[in-house]
Fold each of these.
Amino acid sequence: MKTERGQALPVLVVCLVLVVVWYLACIPMNAVVAQARIDAAGGGLYATLTESWNHTRPVIPAPHQIVVELWNTVFMIAPWKVKSLLYHCWVTLSSTLLGFVLGTLLGIGLAILIVHSKLLSKALMPWIIASQTIPILAIAPMIIVVLGAIGFTGLLPKALISTYLCFFPVAIGMVKGLMSPDVIHRDLMRTYNASAGETLWKLRLPASVPYLFTSLKIAIAIALTGAIVGELPTGAIAGIGARLLVGSYNGLTMMIWSALVAGSAMAALLVWLVGHVERKTLARMGVRT
Amino acid sequence: MKGLRDLLAPALLGVIMIVAWEVACRAIPIPQVLLPAPSVIAAKIGGEVPLLAYDFFKTVLQAVIPGWIIGCSAGLAVALLCDRFDFLRRGLLPLGNFFSVLPLVGVAPIMVMWFGTGVAPNIAVVVIMTFFPMLVNAIAGLQASSHLERDLMRSYNASWAQALTSLRLPAAMPFIFNALKINSTLAMIGAIVAEFFGTRIAGMGFRMQTGFGSMSLDLVWAEIAVAALTGSIFYALLVLAERAVTFWHPSYRT
């Protein structure tokens, strides 16, 4: 993410406003569950605030409650225990990364095929686009269970959902990228008598790197979403998605919110990581941005 | 003639895939419960038209479309505010970028908790999922016009609203349509996933879940087919609208 000059202050102000609105919203929204306690404590402003912001099963938890919950589940429990949030993050992260790698390879492979064969490009492209209008994410849980019934269990089925979601932006971006070298450069390769493979390796692939990274940032974010939704079927016992479902069925508000925050933090971290590798790689390649 | 050939290649590939699926289902004894053959699914679709239509009404017409319209309009409205007040844009754009990469389907259980039963939580999930892509794209689109064109507007002494309607909004249209297309898929996903958490007793997501519970996979696949078809038609309509609105864009000029 490029930071513009003079962005820090506006972002800070907007965030501050959001937090204040959040705290204020807690009062009327938690009234349903907290009103009885407020009255018991004798009413008044102080009782209203402390009860609305510290209820154990709130309709909407106050920000500091989420921070405390995160602290307790991340730092106060050993990471290999089931109660630790880090353990669930790892479960989700591992299938995200596997799916991301598979999807990227598939996307690049498809793009190379499409660039080299006009017939394949005509036959495949409409289906690649159509494949994305299917709400695959919505049927992901079913696919997991079907694969589980045939004996595919564990990491791979979840990763396949991520793969399916990932390959699309990579394929589209890479087709654009592999086509991006100018005609004059391709002609130069021809005068060198370069084979299609050599042209690919020495001209097309290097030229496509900036496009690849742009796609990868989108791909990793949706790979994570895919992994989380893939964990939603009732059989799942671990992962961010499973925490959401368990929290939802048992009315454990804090569990849902902390899982959501953990998922968001992972998304931000992964996108930042890809962006970081992008900057390093492009700098090494001498691409000016 | 060329247009026909462009249609023929993908159509042929599609037919080959469906035939291969059918043959595979008959040749290898895959249990019907797991992967029904296309002919079985087609028969199910034919036999369950009223049920499928009812679920379509419950999910698409009651949740997807209203949520998509509300989410997109809200995103556009906030983007216009950002365009008017630069301070807001500089504050919201990084946050919008951040939020649009988040796994926002995860808010579904919270929405169910807040809005209870009925269609409201499903609409809310769709609104939240579609808001940020529209915000980010529309802000980018509203900045897409060049300095030269904006200076021309200034030399005409055009007001903010006039410059908006005659220059910046039309220039933003390709970006806005991009968001509308992304959101059409997201809206379908949001509405169906929200039904997994919710307590609705009809709808495509609900039917898939119960169909799965009772091992009637042909019904699940019938719903998937309807969802895929709906998604494709939704997308195709947007592409047609885009062509009509942004006919001036280089990618449509011949």
Note: Residues 160-197 of chain B form the longest helix (38 residues).
Amino acid sequence: MTTPTLSVRNLRVEIPTRRGVLTAIDDLSFDIAPGEVLGMVGESGAGKSITGSAIIGLLEPPGRVAGGEIRLAGERIDNVSPDQMRRIRGRRIGMIFQDPLTSLNPLYRIGDQLVETILTHERLSQKAARTKAVKLLEEVGIPAAEARFSAYPHQFSGGMRQRVVIALALCADPELVIADEPTTALDVSVQAQIIALLKRLCADRGASVMLITHDMGVIAETADRVCVLYAGRLAEIGPVRAVVKHPQHPYTQGLMAAIPSLVGDPDATLAQIPGSMPRLGAIPAGCAFNPRCNFAFEACSAARPEVYDAGTSDASCFLHASEVAPSAPAETLRAADQAGIVLPVSAKETIA
Amino acid sequence: MIAFAIRRLLQALGVMLVVALISFMMFRFVGDPVNQLVGVDTSPAEREALRQALGLNDPVLLQFARFVIKAAQFDFGISYQFKQPVASLIASRLPATLELSFVSALFALAVGVPMGVYTGLYRNTWLARAFLTISLIGVSLPTFLIGILLIFVVSVNLGWLPSFGRGDVVDLGGGWTTGLLTKSGLQSLILPSITLGLFQMTLIMRLVRGEMMEVLRTDYIKFARARGLSRRAINFGHALKNTLVPVITITGLQLGSIIAFAVITETVFQWPGMGLLFLQAVQNVDIPIMAAYLLLIAFLFVIINFIVDLLYVAVDPRIRLGGAAS
């Protein structure tokens, strides 16, 4: 087994506030293999972006990594000095932000921003850096790159700016690219192009990608595996096909059911999950999802589920825990079984 | 770019004409100028002759046109109290005021900008808090009080620096005298420029600090960090440059007010500049000097604003009209 490009173990991110310490990320673990695209999904506030910021070491103060380990190609990066971390940023981990309209400094020519970044990470002459920058611009699909080199960001459209941002994030050939909602601010017609471009460029370079989004369509098309977050905790993680087609966590099931479809009855009411995600200060005891879950039983509000093997994926739900699941009422188990949740053998015996 | 400059110049011309009208009106509202010129024992016939000679019986519009044309040639008439041409009086005082103003502005910028950057970056250090407290004093104490305090402490008690005057000056030719080349001239400059520039310095510091804090929160700074750029490149390149547009605006306007409000500092330090001349003119109802002073200050404001507009364009490419560089 090869060393994963990124390995996050038991990550805990805390935000101290006047009213006590909030836990934004709680005991989150996942890996990204070399060349793999991992999709991060979840509602707004589930902790997707905070995870990205924690990995690249740019958590907004007072947020801080309070526990766990982050390893990049086997080396720990969560406890290195700020200066070492600065050398890792851009060089080994590239990051793309949501809004291309505000990601570029409006007062600098895009060519100069590229050259500056290249020279920060590589010992090149000004001229060689310029040549490389122009090549990168061509690669990300900027027409007439040589001429656009000295243009300012405001002279580009949103899609073009995001292409420049991608060029900036990739200019030192990082092993890992964190793309934080790279297409959310873009026109629908441009989104697919940008995602395809990002995927192709990372594949060419063998870079792993952590793709943060709440667009399941983008995930389904792009990601190899997908990680579902809920209230700062892992809900489900697994291959994208399995998670999308056969979700094993009740929350993931709700998410998938809530995606509008082009086929079927257009007048049918869109499925929704009742209630809303808890605020960080008011996460319920036990499983964070239990108040909204159709299949919740006694154990769910008593203890917090670990991550269990759920067949095609791994899910943090007691319905997959072979010791706990049989304690659920028979009708709950039957309903879960019908909803497509693959119950452990011990629970199946109870309802058989 | 050139069209932009020309348009701004035409606007400036309009402003100057309005100011000229106001200063021209002063002559009419402050009483009969003939009374200021002659003694009580002058006969009505002599007064009438003088009035005729001065053109005061002509239509108002003609008088205004004459005033504007003369002003454009730096002819502001004769001072009532000194019986000398106003233009040469002002010319002899202008260097002192300009020197004081520019040194003050330089002091305000050279100290205010770094302090603003520092307090913006390291908000919670004790030094940043100390700067902020000091700046509060600069903002709230009136100029004359600061001047008198400085004289009392530095000149009277410590005896380090002179308390009044310009010291020795060198004539650079063309009537331009400078105190920048002699030791006593430079020493004399220190206290007045601190007094005059302190308020501007604290203003610039607070402005830069606020702008820095604003800019450091933006996405492009976060992205610059994510790209691994050095702290210096981020703080002094990407961040500071983005704070400059408002700083240039305020500094430009403040430079104008420094020159205009040098009056108070010049009085406190007996600085032989225009401000002192103006105060004397006010006391003696010397309208030609007051009118010329008004025109001159307006002219300086207009020039400074024009330069500020051009600087914007140099700093922020988005202001460039017509979307150059394609």
Note: The first strand of chain A starts at residue 6 and ends at 17.
Amino acid sequence: MLDQNVAAEVLSCATRTGGDFAEIFLEDRRSQSLSMRASRIEAVSTSRMHGAGIRVFDGTRAIYVHTNDTSREGLMDCAAQAAAAIRGREPGKPVGFSRWTAAREEEIRLLPTDTPAARKAEKLRAADAAARSVSDEIVQVTCGFADSVQDVLICNTEGVFVTDRRVYSRFRVSAVASDGHENQSGTVSPGAGVGFELFDTVDPEDCGRMAATRARTMLHADNCPAGVYPVVIDGGFGGVIFHEACGHSLEATSVAYGLSEFSGKLGQQIAAECVTAVDDGTIPGEWGSTHIDDEGMPTTRLVLIRNGILENYMIDKLGGRRMNMAPTGSGRRESYQWAPTSRMRNTYIAAGHDDEAAMIATMGTGLYAKSMGGGSVNPATGEFNFAVEEGYWVENGVIVRPVRGASLIGKGGEILRKIDRVGGNMSMAQGMCGSSSGSIPVNVGQPMIRVSSITVGGK
Amino acid sequence: MSQMDLFIQKLLAAAKAAGVDPAEVCYVESSSFSVEAMEGKIEQYEVSSARRLGLRGAVEGRMGYASTEAFDDGAIAMLVSGVKDSAALAEAEEQEEIYGMDDAYPELTPVESDIDGVSPEDKIAMCLRMEEAAKAFDARISKSQGAFVGTSRGLMRLVNSKGLDLTAETPQGGILSAGVFLVAKDGDSTTTGGHFEATRRVGDFDPVAVGQAAAEEAVSQLHARPVESGVYKAVLRWDVMQAMLATFSGVFSAENAQKKLSLLAGREGETIAAPCVTLIDDPLLPGGMATAAFDADGAACRTKAVILDGVLETLLHNRKTAKKQGVETTGNASRTGVGGPVRVAPTNLFLQPGTRSAADLIRDMDDGLLITDISGLHAGANPISGDFSLIARGFLVVNGEIGRPVEQITVAGNFYQLLKEIREVGSDLIFQGRSIGSPSVAVEAISVSGADSVQP
């Protein structure tokens, strides 16, 4: 993708005014997406993204310049612009690349760029038909499939020179149920860091039926009561609770400036003893996995919280400088258009020992959140909120009816201490996480857990 | 002829030779420069330039799409084959069409802009002054989460094989945006708050005022606590209503209505909102962020009321949705990216302001809530059903006076219902660097759940 001599020349140019670190991130990404509405393929689009970002550090200052022009002249121009932001110091030393490696790559059997769009379209048709067969109340089904092959080259003045290929595939089915007055929707969207072999494990018809059933259940649901209740949150996407309520506050982006409620709390009890949480980039083929991060560092498995005690933060290179701690392979970015920062990968609460049925049977009156929607958090205050996509009301330990419109709100630190049961079967689900380095694929996960009390927003 | 002109010319010729006819190129370029400071130190510089080109074209009447950011030798072949592969699968009942020039295009009011004269040093100085002003305003401001000043400019060009060739600045005159975000601390209470503004005339931008406004926003929420659950009268501050409109603007799209994703399908002429509600889509708004003479279909833009005195006047159309419904396009064709289908989007969309100030609305409410912040819109709002359940902050209003701050509550309701329950629209219409704007609004009833409610 880039000649080593050119790379060395560009990095030297970037540090000629005294920058103490420079990096090139070069990317070429081929993506395809298909969408279906009203049982017809609506659009297929193919795109190629191509560009480079040059980053220079001056202590804890960062300069980032990006461009689509990846010719030698284009990169030199970017490097010169970046260098111009730093003034009056000694030029950096000449760059020699010592680590010339390609990141580990699992075998991708069915590369998206080699898979005809017509084969992808068949999967959409199957899901659409299955969703519509669930009920006459299903008035609309939209499906989509998107895949991409991202080739990157990362090199820096520390001698790193690596290439990596990241392959992603994601399927999405969304069904709308209507009684003529009201609409409710249900969405299922599995994805993985694999090619078309995604469909070895994902059955489009199952996805269609699940989305339709969820929409239909919610159409016939009552509004969720509001108040403070015990809440049982199911596994899989339920892990968004940890992602929002705690994960973001453990990223260097928040911690480095003392903006996180967990700043300075390493080694302290921040969660109930039953909580162990992990951020793991090493699981092969998962949606949030990485081989190397977007700063060229090998990925890691980090135990964030062990038995309630805070063990690790997620740290990128710049965050590491600011915190005086080593990076953890957590530097990620959406594309060359974004400077990387500390981000999550596959983040989950590890399996515990509690029985799932007993968890609900002993909860009294409250909410069973079977499927969560997305959420957001303010890392400075820990305030989070997330939507319950599919919820059930529990009275005296018995599930009595579906409820809709519920949201869960609270503060991260509080909720971690209020987790009182952790089930034995951990599962993960896919999401796109948006933050200051763009939107990136992450997995969230957990077993079924119970929170002793949480504010439920409803009507 | 520029290199890009040449590339476009070669591309359209190659498309035609390959049987892609008609074909259209959408080309965008943008550049930006921003500076971010934190705690008096410059932390980040970001300079970007981007070029992206999309090709859409018909093969036997079926439309295909492809786009690229690389303009090398392989790019033309990749675009043409991408379009052909994609067209071969397209089976939507109504296919998109490509049109030549419209009869006439409106003249846009020129905007004066001096943002290009702002040097990096000026930007740094502005950042530092915003932070200093914030800290000087109140000792309880404990930290800055960052101050930023950025300028950006963009350009969009549509060229097709039917003779269309249009270029627009996006936005007109570029934009300078600047703001600061703060943490306030007092005892065991921590809050955040910020303020940002956007302008094209640097002289209008007052870093000290922005810093002070941000500080006031942050400290005003110190020691906030929830209120009891219940149904409250409320005033939604302009920025809260702006966020609501932005989240739910898709309900006014004819495309969504035709696809049964909006409950406003076929309801033109019906009363869907309170009589005080008039919602305008104005692509000709002087200085608007979405101000444009033509849309993504190449159709002329025009100003229209979507809701007039509570009555749904029209949905927003592109040429395809208009044709299906047998009406004229409203000039609201939009592309989310250069390489995708033409959809529908509002331009400059806003609630027409009333005559009385937000303060008047609050005074008249007697008892209720002033909502100043909502979050979680991407998850807690369902654009199809209109349901929302959002974490909110604000103030308790007692006897028409703004009282103690309120946090950790959720406000829940339904957007369609909210439109009917607007009691009055304030006079404070604000866009603040966005294409969707709103004044503050008073609403009859909003359902609130707070943390200190009692479990039954």
Note: Chain B touches chain A through 79 residues (CB under 8 Å).
Amino acid sequence: MKKLMVRLLSGEKHQMFRISVFAVVISLIFGAVVLLMISTNPFASYLNLLQGSGLAPKHSYAGMRNMFTDFMSFLDAMTPMIFASLSVMVALKGGLFNIGVSGMMLVSSFCATALVGYSSLSAGIARPLVLITGIVSGALVGAIIGALKFKFNINEVVSSIMLNYIFMYVLTFFINSYYLDPVSRQSINISDSARLTIIDIKAFGLKFDVPLAFILAILAAFIIRFVMNRTTIGYEIKAVGLSPAAANYAGINIRKNILLTMVVSGALAGLAGVTYYCGYVGSIQPGVVPGLGFNAIAVALLGCSDPIGCILASFLITVISKGSIYMSSQQGVEIELADLITAFILIFSACSGFIKEYTDKAERQLKEKNFNEKKGGAQA
Amino acid sequence: MDNYEYIIEMKHITKRFPRIVANDDVSISIKKGEIYALLGENGAGKTTIMSVLFGMYEPDEGEIYIRGEKVNITSPRQATMLGIGMVQQHFRLISNYTVTENIILGSEPQNKLFGFIPHVDIKKSNAEIAALSEKYGLKVDPLAVISDLNVSTQQRVEILKMLYRDAEILIFDEPTAVLTPQEIEFLLEIIRGLRDSGKTIIIITHKLEEIKAIADRCAILNHGRLIDIKDVKDTSTTELARLMVGHEVSFTVDKEEARPGDTVLKVENLTVCNEQGYKAVDDVSFKIHSGEIFALAGVAGNGQNELADAIAGLKQVRSGKIVLDGLDITGMSIRERIENGMSYIPEDRQKVGLIMGFSLKDNLAVRKYYTDSFSHHTIINDQTFDEHGKRLIDDYDIRSSDGNSTIVRAMSGGNQQKAMIAREIDMNGKLIVFMQPTRGLDVGAISNIHKRIVAERDRGAAILLISLELDEVMNCADTIGVIYDGRINRIAKASELTVNEVGNYMMGVSRSEIQDGRDDMQKEGGEGA
């Protein structure tokens, strides 16, 4: 066991990536044990997750739908997760813990819905406007949190979690008062031309959704990666994040960078908001803080605070959440079981530091043992 | 019972790290009740061999015998059970716990409340700690919270921590690096007392005077190899220094007469408050010319930090003016000061001077990353970063396991210091402020840095050298200022002051008193003749 772990996880090359994969595998095993305990076939259940996400074929499909339909819908659900985890990641790099992604998502999507969503603008204008509104409003919320931090030294965790609730209640009031669809008890669906997902497009004899912003999300990840690793902007943000005192000494403007970090993080959260509420869903549910904003923290950590890692982690978590509906209908298990597996993944990925320490130590011990055995053999 | 010659025997210890052999076939034997010194340059492998003894590393080869029995020490806990204790260079104390809580942590005496609820018997512990500190003459208040204590008291807590666990063998890793001269003397007293009460003491150091002062025997390491073992009373500091560095070193700084030019730094009536609102720097005025080394002497905590931080722009000024080369910089940002030719080597390299999580080359570029050749339209030019890093690493002999891409946290303290100094000197500034530049460095490195400082002076830079080491002040200075309780007690040409006078000014003795003393001495001298 120890030897196996050392072989799989030791060494420097991509170590954190391998440890993350290891954490996922262990979590799936734990999930399987739970599934077995409620006498459900874990393999079938996991297959259902893939089927529900359009990554494996189902037994039967409704008219004009097949695996591709599910897969496009899966990408649609994954897009906001990528943006949200990037938002958390950028803040982490700058030494800030942004719990306010949910609030930012609500604000940005509400602004986009109210300003653009119900207008009669053509798609070519409405969609970019939705994106821009999302970016700007999210960035503004980020700026508030950043300003509170550097002006009054208010911890961003406290201010962002408070703002989540403030925005949720204020926006609930406005939605309930002005934009409520009395049937669905949600905000009235935005117009198709403003929506970032093209719904039920018909082509190749199929019906499917097209998440327009997915490419943008992938692009954003690569841009963030470039900015963080290869520009002075990233250099400054990382310096402030690692050691504010040393960054200050180096002549880096700390306040500017705290603000900048939160603005970028907010803009990304804004994009998460509009791609979720004005794309994947199409309306806002009042009175609810979206859980996606919190899951994004875990996804960012699972992704080792790396943009590409965030894409992979978003992929995984979305497979589980998206596929869970199908799994629950096929296996007759509760849908919350998927959350349980996600929780396992998060717990084990949070242990990645420990796993690293453990394997490094085991590796050393193993080397010593081998060495001694060799020496013993030579003496004999 | 004591049928062993040596309490510790380490035989043929070899410890390898990736790319470096930290200990290469080192054998040392230590008698019970002696003070044994390990001497060597930064990175010579002193700390590694003691970490092996303390169970933090396991040796790749070699055997350890404690009290004549072969042991295999795999953890500090096991070392503790064998009666080995170690005070690390960086203390391992929980800053918001009390002294007692820190000492008993991990072996708390338990009491049963109502006969079954276990809880820590803190009253008993407090009494025990008080008795223990009494017994060994280590004055501490068991109820004091660590964060309120100064470094030297914290060190005493660390010592008590070992004694509480009945340690027989006490290892000190560079115990004096963080102490003022008075505190050092006090610590050496304590160490002697511990030996006299039967403890065996191993002291890791690169300060030769300390070895002469307290050690019985001394092992000299260089590049991981054992060079020699000497009886301290049969050797001289010069010989020790030669063995340690591998070649002759001079303790004096060779420098020509200063040729001061125009005034570069003018500090006028500067007052700076510390966090508590106390006037840490109080109405201080002085001038430094180009081509002059102005050394500021003083006991730690007399306002040196605040003065340096205020000049560098890290701290706000209450009143007064700082003028750099005719330009009033009092209200300028740090970057503006840098661009106007100021370099600053701060005292705290780990928190302030370096970004510990950055690579070496990123740290070396921290003052220049935004300038033209380093980045273009914010896009970083990797090649310049690499070349710049490589040049400084070669020029200043900065040693690390992975060169440019080593994470600075993984480097030894001495090499971190070298990296910081290399970066600042390379700025070619008009004014260079050195705050304790040679703290924690070995003799060879110190003499190198002193040479650099003099070279910078000769280039025409104005140097402000703030140091707690009186020797350093006397050796390097052209002009000496002495600071006491936030005020400059005396400014004079270095040639006009003796070591004793500077020492007295450092203790707050006023000029007239010292003048009187000198007259008396002359009188006595005259009468004697």
Note: Strands of chain A lie at 180-181, 186-187, 197-203, 206-211.
